[in-house]
Each structure stands twice: as C-alpha cells, then as structure tokens.
Amino acid sequence: MSTFVEKFDVLIIGAGPAGRALAFEFALLENSVIIVDPNPLEQWKSTYGTWVDDLDNRDDASELRGCFQRTWPQVRVVGKLEHQLSRPYGIFDNRLLQKYLSHDAVSFYRGDVVRVQQSDDNFLQVHLSTNEQFEARTVFDCGGTQSSLLLRNNQYTGGFQSAYGVHTEAAGAVQADSFTLMDWSTPPGASASPATFLYAFDLGNGTAMVEETSLVEREAVSDAVLRQRLEQRLGRELSQATQQVEHVRIAMGGSLPSRFGHVVGFGAAAGFIHPVTGYSVAASLRAAPRVARAVSDALVRDEVVEEIARVGWNAVWPLSFLRTRVLHDFGLAALSRLTTADIQVFFDYFFSLPQSHWSGYLRIDTKARVIAQNMTRLFFNVPLRIKIKLVRKSPLGLIRCLLPGRFL
After folding, report:
1. Last residue of some domain: 234, 251, 268?
2. Distance separating alpha carbons of residues 119 and 267, to the nearest angstrom
3. Which string of b and e fits 5-38 if b means at least 16 CB within 10 Å?
4. Residues 196 and 292 in one domain
5. Which 3 state secondary structure label does DSSP give 148?
6. Do residues 15 and 146 both lie within one domain?
7. Which residues contact 139 (CB under 8 A, 6 or more apart)?
8. Could you tell me which of 117, 137, 111 has the C-alpha nearest to residue 26?
9. Mode of pairing for the β-strands spanning 242-251 and 49-51
C-alpha cells in the first residue's frame, strides 16, 4: 500500500529572516515552497539591524526600508576617540519584516527535520521527527549556526562573539536619539579584560536597547560577566525597568560547511555571519534573490538533485566571496591578538578611513581585491606596536593575502 508524500520544488528548514527571505524569492519565481520549523509563525525575538544602504542592491529596497522600526542619520563609535559616522543605520521592526517576507504561495509546517536523503535523481526525501515525510527537488538549511544537517569538514571556529542585552527605560541609559554601534571605552571599575564594547540605541518611545558585547574570544564570555560590565557602564543595576533580555552566542569565522552535500546552507547556517561584526541578516537579504534565480533556472532545466545542489552552493558562496572570506578570517584572527587598548586605537584608525573603504570591509560580498586594498591602507596607518601584533603569528599569511593581483 503506497503512502502519499507531498512534493515541493523547494523545502526550507528554518523560518527566521534568512529562511523567510529565501522562500519569498523562490515563491516570486513561481516555485512551490514549504518552510519547516518547530515554530514557523512565531515572531522573531532578536534585534536585527543594518546600514540602510546595504539594502540598495535589492529591487525592493524602498519597501524593506519601510520595515524599519527606526533609523538614525548618524552612528556613534568610540575607540580612544569619538567618531560620528554620517551613514544611516536602521533597526528592523520584526513584525513588519516578517509580514513583508510572507508570500501566499509559501506553505508552513510545524516540525523538526532529522534526516534528508536522496530518493531518486529528481527528489530528496525529508524525514521529520514525527516520522512524516516530504519530498523536494532541493532543500535549503536556514536553521542557524547550530544546524546538524549540513556536512562539515571540521568544527573549527575563530572564536565566539557573546552579548548580553536588555530593553530598558531610555532615561539615563543612552544619549537621547542616539545610535552607538561600538563604544570600546572601559566601564568604570571594570578590568580591561575581556575586551567588550557597548552597543546601544534610543528607540524614541521611552525605551532603549543596551548591550555589552565581546567581539571575539576563544571561549564565550558568560552572561554574568557581560551583565556586570553593562551595569558598571550604566552605573546602575539592571533588575529594574528591564523589559526584555537578549542573549547572543555566535561562532565567528572558521570553517564553512562542505559544498558536497545534497542540503544547501543559507544565511547563518552557511556561514554568512560576518567574521568581525557578527551580522548576517542584510547579507541574507542581499543574497536571496541571487540564490533563488540560480536554483530556479536549474529547476527549469530539470537538473538532477546533485546538480541543483551544486548550483545552489555556487550561488550561496561564489568563488570571489570565498576569497573575501579568507581575508575576513585573517582579520578576525589578527584582532583576537589585540588588547583592549590596542583595539580602541585600531578602530580609531579603521573608522578614520574614508567611508567607502571601511564600509566595504563590513560586508561579506565585497570583492576581495577591494578588501585587500583597504586592509593594506589600514595596516600602514596603524602604530608600529599594532602592526607587530597583527602579523606576529603569520607574517607570511598577511603578505600572501595582500599581494597585488592575488584577488583580481
């Protein structure tokens, strides 16, 4: 007796921003799409932000800008010095973004995917923990950095970014109407280690988000340490007037998933997290149309599942972006060798570069030769003691990375 198994062109695991964005693009191209997630309609709880102009390459950039909860015309950064960056930044309203990335043609199913295997040349079998099954021409894992469905050659990471943040009353917590991307000043009474910075903004409705962040450490910094440093920075305890708490643990840099599996990664699951900033949402929004177009073309050509996966991986991580990733990983390793005082000076020099130079470094899809050129400019600008620390463990690696013509 045969059992009916529902079939789709595309099955997406994970209903976060990356999964929703990719499903939206596939649906626009008239593919049948289903998202499988333990809580597919749950409202996102994390805070998502981006530089406003990082959305400009999308045809619907103006609509996405309409999903911001608030934007700021200037961004504040503090190293040893204070910098006012005239580049608008926005924080998404999760409800609006989630609604915008919804499409009537996308189906949702509550469940956990436990296994994906090839059925035949044309379909993959997707097995759920409840013993239910779907079949799909291609499967994308958008389930975040903890996904176990992608093949990985090793589990190496460049370290962990950790953050402890709260939504609280704005009065006394932040400067009115301000957005602080990084404040590396050491909190009063705190030790200089670990190196942490304040990320904070005034939402303009009487509330603010304040977050203490460790950029990268070999071991994740505990919530207790980050909370204490945040209280020292604010000069008050957080138990009062705290409305919502956010905990962040992000594996930074390191190995990407193998490109040889049938399941294709996307978003944070594929390593889209920027190895320095920890951001991935804007990168996923920019990449979703590119990936959906490439894979949709393969579906129209009626390619076998192996070829569809190959096309998918090549669209997720084009060779030129893999070269950029090498440079970003080198930069992450170099930053991890700096003391708090060195990091403060480093970012003073970084944000003193022309905006067109530092802004490109903060994207995973900037051409590698541009990244290499800007890394070279920064390296020659910073003080000698920082130069020595940046190259101490791998001077030949830096030379190879920055050789003219290597990343044309």
Report:
1. 251
2. 26
3. eeebbbbbbbbbbbbbbbbbbbbbbebbbbbbbe
4. no
5. coil
6. yes
7. 10, 11, 12, 13, 116, 124, 126, 262, 263, 264
8. 137
9. unpaired
Tens digits of residue pLDDT in 230-269: 999 988 888 766 678 898 888 887 788 988 889 999 999 9
Q: At what angle do helices 319-335 and 395-402 cross, to 10 degrees?
A: 150
| Tokens coding 189 | 């009474």
> Which stretches of 79-148 are assigned E, i.e. beta strand?
82-85, 89-92, 106-110, 113-118, 124-128, 133-141
Residues 61 and 202 both lie in one domain: no
Query: Tokens for 122?
Result: 């044309």
Given this model, what pLDDT does residue 241 score?
Answer: 62
CATH of the domain at 126: 3.50.50.60
**Site of tokens 């957080």:** 238
- The token duo for 138 is 């291609």
Q: Phi and psi for 185 in degrees, rounded to 5?
A: -60, 145
Residue indicated by tokens 């050789």:
403
Contact 195/226 with Cβ under 8 angstroms? Answer: no
More confident residue, 2 or 167: 167
Most confident of 21-35, 182-196, 394-408: 21-35
Domain span including residue 242: 160-251
pLDDT at 72: 97
Number of structural domains, the chain? 3
> How do strand 33-37 and strand 7-13 relate by DSSP bridges?
parallel
Which residue has better confidence, 291 or 335?
291
DSSP 2: -
pLDDT over 50 (residue 404): no
| Calpha distance 382→350 (Å, rounded) | 9
For residues 260 and 189, what is the distance between their CA atoms, to the nearest angstrom?
51
**pLDDT bucket at 407, cuts 50 / 70 / 90:** very low
Are 25 and 55 in a shared domain?
yes
Domain boundary, last residue among 318, 344, 368: 318
Higher pLDDT, 271 or 170: 271
| Mean pLDDT of the region 159-164 | 90
Here the tokens at position 12 are 């997406």
- Residue-level pLDDT at 196: 94
For residue range 117-151, what is the model confidence (pLDDT) as tens digits? 998 879 999 999 999 999 999 999 999 887 788 88
